[in-house]
Amino acid sequence: MPSSKCNSTGSTKRTSAEEQYRAAFERLKNNKSERLPKGTPLSQNNVAKEAGSDPSALKKTRFPLLVDEIQKYIEVHAEEYPKSARQVSLLTRKKNRGFRERIEEITRQRDHLASLLSEADANMLELYDRIDELERQLPTSNVLPIDPRGRKKL
Predict the structure, then answer these.
(1) Where along the chain is composition biased (Polar residues) (predicted)?
(2) Using DSSP, how many helices (H) and how many strands (E) does the chain show?
């Protein structure tokens, strides 16, 4: 829906919605917004608000070239704008979630390896017991060992 705007001479000039959005886009790019506070980050919703319309009115289906321009500008200039507190919080949570998952995985690995070690210790004890049992079953021999230090026990 076109709107009307009065210029300094008092005559009424009709502008299209796309022209209003483009003008709002340029004002936000140059940090010279009229309706929003100075320093407002550039976004598709903020362009619509700066143009004086509802954010849902600036749709890609109605203004595909303009929305593409806005999105490309945002991508290129993303580092220029400071991240909002919410964005920082979301990034921190995501990073912490990754750390938490890594800690859980390492804990599972540790527990698994501890159980393997415990099982190996139990097997060794059983084998030592079996060796002792088999040594007791050996017939006594009158043969003396060649090694002068005697027979080694494990």
Answers:
(1) 1-14
(2) 4, 2
